[in-house]
Amino acid sequence: MRILLIGGVALFFGCGGKVPPQAGATADVATDGAMVVLSDDQQIARAAALLTTRVEADAQEALVVLKPLLVSAADRAEIPFNMGLAYHQLGDALNARKYYLRATAIDPALGAAWLNLGALSERGGQNRRALQHYRAGLRSAPDMGELVVGTIGVLRKMGRHDEAIAEAKTALAKNANNIDVYNNLGLVYIDQGKPDLAQFIYQKALNSIDGAGNNATIHANLGRTFLAKDRPWNAKAELEKALELDPDLVAAMVYLSHLAIDDHDWERTATLLERAAKIQPDNAAIQMNLGIAYRGLGQYELARKSYDLALELDPGNPDPYINISLLLGDHLHDYSGAIAAIQSYRSRGGAHRERADGLLTGFKDRKEKFQADVARKRKRESDRKKREDETRLAAQHEATQALWREEQEKKAAEDEAKRDRAEAAAAAALGAGAAAEAANPGATTEPTRGTRQAGAPCSSDDQCGDGLSCGGGVCASPAEAAPVQTRGSRQVGAPCSSANQCAEGLSCADGACAAASGGGNDWGGW
After folding, report:
1. Cα(194)–Cα(230) distance, integer angstroms
2. CATH code matching the domain that covers 2-260, chosen among 3.40.50.40, 3.40.50.150, 1.25.40.10, 1.10.8.100
């Protein structure tokens, strides 16, 4: 058999290392359509091949292949183990645990089953049970280094650092080349605040173990040690080396993102953490830091989504609420939302109580100030709008008045022009009559009546229509005309058409005003 670790989960392939067919192959059907009965080994190999794809449909098909073998090959531990692995990939922890335990009951020395049982328990936050599984595996498979690493790792999570160090030293005494033990031992020293010891452990591994220089995890952890010693340039060099050796090493991406955050290089932070999130989409810490990067880039909607996802992935960790409050309060001016987020952090037992209290007080003060500013702005805006309305109404009134005055002036001008035209026409008519009489002094032609109607301006009866006479300067019927004619003011020699146009004591003779006593030429006596 052979064991392969993928993503912290051991894959176990039986059949003495035979090469399994490709995933999805129909190995039980010949090309001519005839059925071919596969042996148990071939079926197990086929299921194992399906499990390497990490595709949900393939894991389901692997279960279909393996379930009949539980009866036909009940003594084969790899069958329930691979079924446990299929359920593990499908996210069904209960059935995965059930079949891993069934595999260990058949073969207690099957270390991969104990390893995966421990991994399931750790993922569920059951560190004590995980430790029991790792130690049970070591009792049956004491030489399996992965179980030692799991034991050290879970002891470290539980804060039992001295036990973790003792386990690591015991393991190194048996196998001084177990590089994973060095990696975990160094992490214990980092947790203890002893970065110098951690650096010593990692450099010892690099100097004493063949091929350690090509181990990406050693370089990543050494970089983390330099971070703890505030040596960012050394840390960056080691972390970039780790990422060069393993482009998918999430730890290197995360630690490099810490350096980018310190430099406020939000674009690089986001790039690194987006890559890490694709590899570990269920890592809450990555999502929270990715939210910080998006916030720095001004992508506030993405930031909020990342914070919410971090809470969804790890509901027991209240830290995202601090970041949500900063996003809402500092950038979106939603002080009510920021205060609610801080209160959620405090009510869920957030560790940084003093900082939370300071933020809560600050956001309450800023909310009051903000509300007062909003009220003042609203009043200023209301006053401004009122002034604008008054100015607009005044302008409209002035425009209306100007238009009315313009219309009145236009009407007055038209009336004056009309009067001027009438007077000009009358003067022209008088001039034409005077000219005609001058050309024919003895002519006694009947004057031609005018066409002006009642009420029209006139200077003589001739300008008015039939049946009308000129009285008081306007054409009127004889009944309406003034009974007494007012004498004119024209002097001797002035043109006239009636005696009334001439001054008192003068008469109109031959179209001109003359003395009343001299009606003609004085030829002397006969």
Report:
1. 13
2. 1.25.40.10
